[in-house]
Design brief:
The chain has six helices and eleven strands. The protein is α+β, with helices and mostly antiparallel strands. The chain has a single domain, classed as archaeoglobus fulgidus dsm 4304 fold. Strands 5-4-1-6-9-11-10 form a seven-stranded mixed beta sheet. It has a two-stranded antiparallel sheet with strand order 2-3. Strand 2 and strand 3 form a beta hairpin.
Length: 186
């Protein structure tokens, strides 16, 4: 895998703000940011879209954002910070891969699918559980747990080796998307 290889990291913008009195306000929608990097080094571009908090539109919005991007043909892998984004808006990584043709990887610090299943059940959102199940098995590689669609685990490990330049756990495109998204206030 060469340094010219481009990767996309996707992270959501915080969706709660504080009023001048210090009260938290939760919004109905939030933006998600995509950071495109060359290898694990330089930021090549940024893309964004909007999703519904706790909704079910993240998969389609991510697909649309990528398919309409000028970087699509260059992206070799998509890194997501967990399967849920914008609260409980779950990302179907199999569908993202199918409709973009780009391997899609969920990055997590530790497996939490059991807790997420419990939460969805308690909130009567059991219709989202098949998305969790479709993400497949959880793999582990040097401080990082991950799930994949459209790529073999050993290839993901090559990507992680190349992109984890400033963090032991988070690929650089995902880390940059997090930094960018944390600086945005709706």
């Amino acid at each position: 895998m060469k340094e010219e290889t481009r990767f996309l990291g996707i992270y959501n913008v915080p969706f709660t703000t504080r009023t001048t009195e210090g009260n938290k306000i939760r919004k109905n929608k939030t933006s998600i940011i995509g950071a495109v990097t060359r290898g694990g080094d330089s930021l090549e571009g940024v893309m964004s879209t909007e999703i519904t908090i706790d909704g079910s539109d993240s998969t389609d919005q991510i697909i649309k954002m990528i398919n309409e991007s000028r970087y699509k043909s260059q992206i070799q892998g998509i890194f997501l910070n967990g399967i849920s984004i914008g609260g409980l808006n779950l990302i179907n990584i199999q569908k993202v891969f199918r409709e973009t043709g780009i391997p899609t990887i969920i990055i997590m610090r530790k497996p939490t699918s059991g807790k997420l299943t419990e939460t969805l059940t308690k909130l009567n959102l059991t219709d989202k559980i098949p998305i969790l199940e479709s993400a497949g098995g959880i793999f582990h590689f040097r401080h990082t747990f991950y799930q994949v669609a459209g790529i073999l685990p050993h290839k993901v490990e090559e990507m992680l080796h190349l992109t984890r330049t400033n963090s032991m756990t988070m690929p650089e495109p995902l880390r940059l998307a997090k930094i960018i998204s944390s600086g945005i206030n709706h």
